[in-house]
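User: Hi! Is it possible to get a structure for several chains at once, not just one? Here's what I have:
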Amino acid sequence: MRHTGRAVPIIFATALFLYFYSESVLRQAALSKLKTPKFSSEMILSKLPASIRNSARKSLEIGRLKDAVRDASDDSEKVKAIVNLAMAIDNKKEQERLYREIIKLPQIPESYPAYSYFLLDARPEQTITVQDYQKFIGKCPKESRFDVWNNGLYSLESKNAPANVIKEYLKPLLNEPPPYRDYLSLYEKITDIAFRLGDTAMLEKAGALMEKAIKRPPVFEELAKKNEKQVK
Amino acid sequence: MRDRIFAIAELTFRKLKDPAFFLLFVFAASAAYAMSEMEALSFQKENLILAELISSGSGSPPLTSFLFITCMTLLLAIFAGATDIPRDIESRMITVLVGKPIRRVEYLLGKYLGVCLICATFFTVAAVSANVGHVIKTGHLYPIASIIRQFLLIFTIFPFVAMTVMFSCFFNDITAMIISSVYLIFSLFLSVIPLLVEMLPKSISITTYLYFIYYVVPNFLYYFLTYRIAGLVSIALIVYSLSIAVIFLTIASLRMNSRDMLA
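Assistant: Yes, the chains can be modeled jointly so their relative placement is included. Here is the combined structure:
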């Protein structure tokens, strides 16, 4: 009986070893038939279940984005590549590390996701103040600004910033005529906050600018015109 | 010990006298005869990966008629392997058997060998019928290498019967049959996935729970690859079959030893 007690784990372990070993031989034999140019990565992916396919596609995409960061020839290209990579990555720590890297590089309009990420960050050493962010917006081209404004607003809201901070953030928009129709949503936000805080002057001003914004063209029209000119 | 195992195996094998088994044998032999003219297993262009896996390479490919025979044999393995032990427990036959100087492990191995023997006989009868049919219809025999290749499909029996016997040690006959069938379908469904994942570039890191599931089910696709008879793949396939059978039987024996046969 003692012999049997000892034999069972030995037999089991041996069988497991032989199982894994023989399986790997058979797998390699099967793979040797498939490793031909006939099968592209995309074709293989299409045969996999959706969950694995999505994970593999994501992995492929991240690999491409990492290559783009490595191959970037100047700071502007590097910022764009790092932003794309950071936005594709799910790992929050890695994403933050990439955004920190962007902050160290020269400011370009495409850096805005990094600036909005650190906007009013709880850690003083890496926080971006509302004033700094507004200055950054001022340096961006007119047609890019709406996205930057919007991203900053989203960041503040996701950090549960109080209404008066959001009011401060959006205030500069009241000092200039709306360049595009897209700004309507920002003015709506201002009226909402002004109503909550009981600021009638702000409410009236935002209402007037909303009427002006309706008459303006959307951003995409402007961008399309610009692209057309470039093509010509 | 060996005599006692063989005695149980013989007792199990005698079930072949049952008219149901006899009818199944006749059906398999007739069907195999009818399908004997079918060529090597092939797939349409839409299944290029399966086609490449099964048909490409040097050596003998599996024949369609033998795929049918293997499927029928596995079906028989589900019926015979999943029902024998639960029925012996229900009818208290097991208490009579293990009351004699027969250990539970010997009883289990005897049952396993008996069911394997039934399935192997079934496979052989159908295979011989397919070969005879081929000779009668075409006037010539399959090449010897091809015949040996087809007979290697018999190794699917060993892990599969061990698996059904293992389930029958845990559940009643109907449940064991259902679980064995689901397990078989599941293993067929999963068989290509890890191979495809390995074909992707190494830069793509995929960690999936499917890998874990893959390793706990035998990959029956390996039995249908085209390969040379005298080669490493044949040996690996035999080792693969026997090692899985041992793993399943070890789990089954642990369950048998701890189970209350009167409950």
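Chain B has one domain: 2-258. The CA atoms of residues 86 and 106 of chain B lie 16 Å apart.

User: Great, thank you!
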